[in-house]
Amino acid sequence: MAKKIAILGGGESGVGTAILAKKEGFKIFLSDKGKIKDKYKDVLKNLEIEWEELQHSEEKILNADVVMKSPGIPETTPLVLKLKDNNIPVISEIEFASEFTSAETIGITGSNGKTTTTKFIHHILKDGKISAGMAGNVGDSFARQVAENEFAWYVLELSSFQLDGIINFRPKIAVLTNITPDHLDRYEHSLEKYIASKFRITLNQTKADYFIYDADDKNISDWLKKNPIEAQKLPFSLEKKFENGAYLENEQIIVKINNTKFYMPTTDLSLQGKHNTKNAMAAATVAQLLRIRKQTIRESMENFQGVEHRLEKVLKINNVMYINDSKATNVNATFYALESMESATVWIVGGVDKGNVYSDLLPLVNEKVKAIICLGVDNAKITNAFGNCVDIMVETQSMDEAVKIAYKIAEKNEAVLLSPACASFDLFENYEDRGRQFKEAVRNL
After folding, report:
1. What is the pTM (predicted TM-score) of this model?
2. Residue 327 marked as a ligand binder
3. Which of 91, 106, 141 is the last residue of a domain?
């Protein structure tokens, strides 16, 4: 008899799971508490998959053998708790898709730098002529790609929410970029729980697998001291040196693995800044493990273009550079952005606060920021944190208004930086929408 799967959520991961489940002969019921986008409804109708929106028919869902839950639905939702009480496995799309592919996977997680590192690795693999798909939080869902393609490798960007729903998923290579407080609202405001969630990426790894991580990150080092892992460890660092791992020496990135050595001057990297040097170290370590030619790795790292909405230079107007860093949805990401600014900056900040602590930014704001433009429904925390640091602080309710005010304030050889340090759901659909609105407003000046 066909196995029954219930899918909660009709977005990219839900519909991707439906496509793969159909191919594998499951009996499917997809349910979304919100509205499903037309492009996804069309796919469901074409495949003749039973679905519903604006409700969850519990009876049907509780009748499933397995449930795939979209990452946006918290573990503490009453329906999810009820499923667990009934011993029905609740898994993520990553877990489901991994059962139906023999491809090896490279999993990338961390609070910041995930997307850049994922795209960086995929870019080098493609240049190295390795058959590789890219999925997870970027592009088409992993499940959909497993259903429609035959790749030898997958490069997967994984959020902690996706990792919470894995049981057997085991990446051949796991990368942990860093851990800073983020999404704590989903982890009972416990940093420990959030860290444990990130480390699930190495949960099923064995001695034959690799774990690449930032050795300068205190949260990571402390956790590893207390929790031994099976995988072979390959650290990267801007401060320490290793027998096996990546480090800096004379302004060069060195990657050493089992007596092979790769080096590249940091000045040749297409993306500058300390955090990008670390992303490059992680990517070069993966490339070395896959034995891609050193010359190919170097060329690939010289021409990698980076990610939209991440420190993306939009336009120079009257000698003022406008920079879109809408992807900075937490304080640590904004820290990197401000750290990389070389001129006085008009900073556009704000949105939905995920329990942010802004004190880390104070030295940088004092040093680099001449004016702050708040862009959120509730800006009280920002005005309290930085009110004494700058002479000009303005509250706005729309991107257009924020950019117009920035245009009036910014002078020659200065910069306007959108780096919100917050989620975007109060005034925008998501961070991409926020970034696009910023770029449009700048082009309309």
Report:
1. 0.81
2. no
3. 91
